[in-house]
Amino acid sequence: MSAPKYRFCTGPWNFSEGQDPYGPTTRPAQTFDWKLASLKALGFDAMMFHDDDIVPGLEDKSSAQVLKEAGELKKRLDGEGIIAEMVAPRLWFHPTTIDGGYTSNDPAHRQAAIDRSKQSIDIAAVMGTDLLVLWLAREGTYLRESKSGRRSVELLAHACDEMLAHHSGIRLAIEPKPNEPTDHAYLPTIGHALALAQLTRDPRRVGCLIESAHAILAGLDPADEIDFAMSFGKLWSLHLNDQNGLKFDQDKPFGSANLRVAFNQVRVLERNGYGSNGEFVCFDVHPFRTTKPEHWLKHLENSRRTFDRLVQKARTFPEAEANALIVDRNYQDLDQLVLEHLMGK
Ligand code: XLS
Ligand code: MG
Prior knowledge:
12 helices, 43% helix, binds magnesium ion
């Protein structure tokens, strides 16, 4: 397999302003134009979007107006040579999503979530992408007794069916995360996401998106999650970032917490030929709260730089030497070989 050439992507929310649950923003608000210009200046190829990143305030607009505004943004992106990688319905902010979208106990709220998802599919069609990403933020429990896990799985499959039926060309990429904001999410891992795909009317159009930090929060190694998804041909997008153990979702720069875990992600992407069907490498990273405005783009620039360096590390890994150690079951020296390779001369 020839070495893949990667294309890069990030989202408008990744130029965040420093707010956290305990304090306000630490950097002034920036316009969408600034974010788009910054993404271009960084040499990225695509932008990923929530539905309301494309049409702010879409809840209060008619669907004709929403699609008109999406079309205007699509024209601008075309003019800038930037691709819309995906659209994701934001089902965690609006009052109708307090108890979840597709798994809410309120039937009217479940319908609102499905309707909004269908609208996101229409927006995706205007934006020229066939990928709808589902980060199922509140599809879980805050209190175990409040919902039935079995019923929630059925509701999730039903919601996917409605989306698949809405547009014959749309593909759904489920982005699992085990917790936060809920105590427990119903689709916490890639295995869960791909198993759910089998319950839908068209399993071939339901795949997944892996975020490094989400896998780590599930106690899993993201490289193994990537290998698993790619064994099924189901890794349709990727959010690289980093996470220091079982804490709040940190979205650190790629490789920031554990360079070896990052190396292994890049190595399996290389081995599996990620990107050969047009998939993008997206960085779902945030600047540290302490970041000054003049250093605003560093988390993206540095993530890309680390990724590129690790591609070189993967391509120059001493495979023959490693294989000889594997045959000899000398994993002790294999361990050191990896460390020496990463540290360099
Ligand atoms: C949040 C998610 C979010 C998705 C898109 O944790 O990573 O940013 O990627 O909805
Ligand atoms: Mg993500």
